[in-house]
Amino acid sequence: MELQKDSIDFNTDYILERKYQFCGHHLCISQSSDAQLGTSNFIWEAGVDLCRYIEKQNLNFKGMKVIELGAGTGILGILAVLLGGNVTITDQPNVLKQIQHNVTASIPMSCRDRVNIRALSWGCDHAQFPSDYDIILGGEIVYYSKTYPLLVSTLQHLSHEKTTIYLSSKLWPDFQIHQFYENILPEHFDCELVNRNEEDNINVYKVIKKSSSSGDQL
Ligand SMILES: C[S@@+](CC[C@H](N)C(=O)[O-])C[C@H]1O[C@@H](n2cnc3c(N)ncnc32)[C@H](O)[C@@H]1O
Q1: Global pTM value
Q2: Based on CB atoms within 10 Å of each CB, which residue in 7, 67, 79, 149 is the most buried?
Q3: 69-81 pLDDT, tens per residue?
């Protein structure tokens, strides 16, 4: 649930602040004024939709090892921490300051030992991360076809057959998003559509590694 829209944050590094409530927790998410951040300094509707799905399904992350990919503002990873997970929130190096800002604003001190913010560029440095995550989260990270093989290789490295991956995507035209979910991902993962937001054309997928698919094959 979005509580309040577009209040101005007078800290000039952050131009927009939105407040959300999911699963009884309050989240305060700001967007950086740094135009260099590109797609990272928006709160994407697909990410918010995945938060709504987590709330609707009453998903519990207690004690689970979770990683968020392409976190942007960090909204999904922050919710996972508030729901009890041990969470690594990742994105490209220049985005980490924005994530840190939102973590500080939304996660009480008592939970901060369960959050870790780290740089992870798909297909490049995933080998520095373990392969035993329980949950992998990605909101609106499927939109640029050149990165699809990189993203798949990172998902393969981070996951095992008991890992549950949740990805949400707005089905933008011309970005070959169907191709990713219907052809590319199913080479190594079983991919189930678990929620469809018709109004905004956003899908949530639950993705599980196929038993024959080992890591780092791409
Ligand atoms: C459209 S934004 C989505 C942000 C956030 N997940 C949300 O739902 O609001 C896509 C994010 O993916 C990240 N990203 C794009 N390509 C990446 C790559 N090759 N490696 C790591 N992150 C990447 C961007 O930096 C950006 O933060």
Answers
A1: 0.92
A2: 67
A3: 999 999 999 999 9
How does residue 214 score in pLDDT terms, banded at 50, 70 and 90? low
> What are the pLDDT digits (tens) for 126-138?
999 999 999 999 9
CA of 21 to the centre of ligand 1 (A): 23
- Which atom of ligand 1 approaches the CA of 91 most closely? 22
The enclosing domain of 158 has a CATH number of: 3.40.50.150
Instruction: Please report, for residues 2, 48, 131, 218, the alpha-carbon distance to residue 65 in angstroms, rounded to integers and kept in the order given.
Output: 27, 21, 11, 24
State the amino acid at position 26 in one-letter form.
H
Give domain status of residue 184, yes or no.
yes
Residue 23 located in a structural domain: no
Give me the pLDDT at residue 3, please: 54
Of 210, 218, 215, 54, nearest in space to 138 by CA = 54
Q: What percent of the chain has pLDDT over 70?
A: 91
Q: For the chain, how many structural domains are there in total?
A: 1
- The verdict on residue 36 lying in a domain is no
Q: Give 9's pLDDT tier (boundaries 50, 70, 90).
A: very low
Closest residue by Cα to atom 3, ligand 1, is 140
Pocket around ligand 1 at a 6 A CB cut-off: 39-40, 43-44, 46-47, 70-73, 75, 91-92, 95, 121-122, 139-141, 143, 147, 150
For residue 120, the enclosing domain spans 43-209
Residue 189 CA, distance from chain mean position: 18
What is the rounded distance in angstroms from the CA atom of residue 114 to the CA atom of residue 104? 13
